[in-house]
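Hi Q.,

Before the meeting this afternoon, I wanted you to have the pyridoxal-5'-phosphate prediction in hand. No need to reply - just skim if you have a minute. The sequence and ligand are here:
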Amino acid sequence: MKSKKLSQVYDPEKFKEFGHELVDLLSQHLEEANHEDTLVHQWKSPAERLEFWQQYELDKNSPKTFFQDILKGSVNIHHANYMGHQVSPPAPLGALASLMSSTLNNGMAIYEMGAAGTAIEKIVIDDLNKRIGYDINSSDGYITHGGTLANLTALLSARRAMVEADIWEEGNTEKLGIMVSSEAHYCVDRAVRIMGMGSAGMIKIPVGENYTMKTELLNEYYEKAKSEGIRVIAVVGSAPSTSTGMYDDLGAIADFCEDKKLWFHVDGAHGGAAIFSEKYKHYLKGIHKADSVVIDGHKMLMTPTIMTFLLFKDKNHSYATFSQKAQYLLSKTEEEQWYNIAIKSFECTKRMMSIQFYILLKFYGEEIFEEYVTTLYDLGKELASIISQRNDFELALEPDTNIVCFRYNPQGKTQDELNELNKRLRSDLLEQGKFYIVQTTLNGNVFMRTTIMNPKTTSKNFNLLLDEIEGLV
Ligand SMILES: Cc1ncc(COP(=O)(O)O)c(C=O)c1O
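Predicted structure with the ligand bound:
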């Protein structure tokens, strides 16, 4: 290589040296996550952070200080006091597989560009499909970049399967609609609008006191849409919804879809992983009837961000979604080619994500996922019980999962005062850095929201969190 710089870039010895430095730092980071006095994150405002990185000078001999500064500026998801958004503390072995994926950079659009990852992807898809209760000879699926994209793709598949007209060629020729709980993740709303169905096509079914879809209203909303000239093509069940972590009654939605001949999609981005839990898989009763299911690996299956399983009961639907031809890549687009994933997926280039999950499955056995999901859901119930026993704290509702919402609610305050107080307390907590939790709005009121993602979190962390909140009052 003529260029000295380029040969430095690709020097295997330097890779080894820098890699060892990084792994040593990450290992220390994991170790420190267990120390009580370690902060979950060091809060700085966006403007301060921007200025820091704008003025950043790097030692040209080693990237070590850069690695250290990234660690200092990032939230520590492996910390037992991290109870924020639904992102798992990735299993370090999965993270190493992810490093492998980044280094090999096999694009995975076609088999030739990702042979190992493609074969492994089929194995893990079949494994999940079997757990869902699909026939693995007729079902299919693939791994895609996130629940948002997976939900959009599933709804595109639904439209392809349900509508006779060739929308791919002609655009929408009639008014279409999707029915979904008013508590569903916002990405479903986005998908509906991306698909050109507009506000009218996003039919939100109200929720009951437990924040799950009132399935007894499905028929009424369906008939109303029909009378307004909207053809409902699918119903989305949340398993669970994001804010409160409560599962819709999938069995009831399945029966309704069967009766009306609609596509049934399950957004199990968070809690589809309960298929691994003997104790909690009852929440997913009826999932085997779904036409499509989404399950995020980076939420409840301990993989690094980002990887999502998109599963189809009938493999023909998986192949039919995108009929656009890319002949230079795919020799026979119409033919079933499980090993050329770009035929089915939105993406062309795709990370080799399957290995992040497969290594955990093979190395630790599938019971590791059972343990993870069951432990976290159990912890959710434990936190709820602790909150219920504390004066001045109000549990929003008994949780199904590891998502627990509550607020500080001393006597004698108006709703407005409580909203202001809880917003302020959450913000102070964030700046102080000992805990990381988020907030949500339920029935117009502000609640603190925790998602227990770390199996090492215990009742001690829960009590310390509540003490800390009280201390900030
Ligand atoms: C129920 C649900 N669906 C979809 C998503 C979006 O998934 P992703 O963040 O992987 O795009 C989320 C994320 O929180 C979710 O909770």
